[in-house]
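Hi support team,

I submitted a single chain yesterday and got back a structure, but I'm not sure I'm reading the token output correctly. Could someone confirm the output below corresponds to the sequence I sent? I've pasted both exactly as they appear in my results page.

Thanks,
R.
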Amino acid sequence: MRQTESVRSFLNVTTDKVYENREWEWGYRENEPLDGYDPYSNSKSCSELVTHSYKNSFYTDGRVAVSTARAGNVIGGGDFASDRIIPDCIRAAMKGEEIIVRNPFSTRPYQHVLDPVAAYLMIAAKQYESPDYASWYNVGPDDQNCLQTGALVDLFVKHWGEGLRWIDKYDGGPHEARFLIMNSRKRRKGSSLETVSRTPPGCSTRRRCRRLRMPRSTSG
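Hi R., thanks for writing in. Yes, this is the structure output for that exact sequence:
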């Protein structure tokens, strides 16, 4: 980026897990300490710090607007990674099995993938027009729109039908905080960086769930 004169706007997307999690029941703000608990989360905290240091060291002249965006839990079509709640629900449903939910009482800022993507594009465009928009932003739903994981699975089960059920069973997955909520008011202040919020999130109908395509197995 330093060697490309045409660059005028840079946005580093990290995660809501960059914060030192204190199990607060209110949203973390952008000025809260960065210290992710596990290696993945802390690597994102480090990415934030590296971005801040580069901005302070090389871009104080305002030639390039530099920001970071800390996004909440993203769900949507095309994601079939392991240890993700909606893909896990779909895999279980297609096999006719009960859905295993490891932490049903964990509260998360779930949002449809189009919401943060819209926010990223808006931030990048706005700071391209005016470097005054360059900053650190939380990207997530309002506090009242955050859901417990069990409530999200209830929505999935309701719209999928076919007698689908879920059970509360911890199977030794990665560490998960009980409460993880972000305060995104900074981005919405003055509505200049406001985006449309879609609630409830995710698969709102059984038909949409079935339109998702599972990847083909490569095993022999």
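A quick pointer for reading it: Residues 81 and 145 are 24 Å apart (CA to CA). Let us know if anything else looks off.

Best,
Support desk
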